[in-house]
Amino acid sequence: MEQNRITTLLGIQYPIIQGGMVWNSGYKLASAVSNAGGLGLLGAGSMYPEVLRTHIQKCKQATDKPFGVNVSLLYPDLQEVMDILVEEGIKIVFTSAGNPKIWTPFLKQHGITVVHVVSSSKFALKAQEAGVDAIVAEGFEAGGHNGREETTTFTLIPMICEKVRIPVIAAGGIATGKGMLAAMILGADGVQMGTRFIASTESAAHQSFKDRVIAVEEGDTILTLKELAPVRLIKNEFYKGIEERYANGASVEELRAYLSKGRSKKGMFEGDLVEGELEAGQVAGLIHSIEPVNHIIQSIITEFNAAQQRKFNF
Prior knowledge:
This protein is 42% helix and 15% strand.
């Protein structure tokens, strides 16, 4: 596979980036993805600052390849997190939510490559203006926290590529080599996959959650809670409770109280499939097995290469 702007920027073999997912993306997953030729990301959103430091140090021991950290800019201890990234010599940071103008200069000043996640052309242009090195364009299909616009990935990618000069990474609804090729034909320089790596041996997710992800069928996930922070969930009893509250005209405060702290940990990390928050993308319907990361990446690349060589007759 030829090198391109993303592989060169990030120093990786394949333009495949693992999503920095809360409760899923510890050092075992991140290092495995990096060792297999992609870019592994630690998900800082579910880690206290010192826990993040520990995962960074363990990741350094587990791989000599580039890896990064995904940081939500709504994180409560942001200064402490940023200081740890600098102290530990992190070279790649993916930021999401919040305003990239606030922290991008700080990170760049310390020689860190910055990639920001967006869900619209408007925010892609703002991220470029803020000085980020690349953007992740995430469509409505993606699992976890998402944009309010409900723009699909394959609509969003060409729209953003038409407007920005910096490299674009496609995210949302991609878990296969064919999906990767399709995104790159539309202009993306690489892809970010979250749900595909949940269903991996090295993921920190609870086994029950992994099993639920590979059992997902079309229509089993839904984007909800737009009044708080839009999130795509697998439908379960917890989600039915959200539906009931909407039907009864619940206020934002009532929805927030029902969501409560710890729902995502309960579902994804502790394996409570009834009352936990189960974040996964629509593409889970295409994922049927839990495999080691190196097998996943090699199968994606094999399928990508085969699809690229296929000749179409119209």
